[in-house]
């Protein structure tokens, strides 16, 4: 996810651990918001996990639920270059385009 690219150099993250998150929403925009917010919480709270790779394991488009696993490690300032702090996910100008065989998401994050 590009959000973590703001926080550190993705290439510096080793996939030695995993974390799983679940998110729900009332529509696709709120699902996207809660999905990103859950990952931001996992990074911001102990054990400060930062994924290099995220794999969606369940995606229920009708009930707006998602489960996924992130593969990475605990953020370590001596190993991972510190980038820009992401403070929050926003709904501001959030856009989801679901075209045939091409999906695009635009999210503004608060830094």
TrEMBL record:
Keyword Metal-binding attributed: yes
Domain Archease: 2-111
GO cellular component, as recorded: tRNA-splicing ligase complex
Similarity comment: Belongs to the archease family.
Coiled coil: none
Keyword Transit peptide listed: no
Protein name: Archease domain-containing protein
Keyword vocabulary terms for this entry: Calcium, Metal-binding, tRNA processing
Gene3D superfamilies hit by this protein: Archease domain
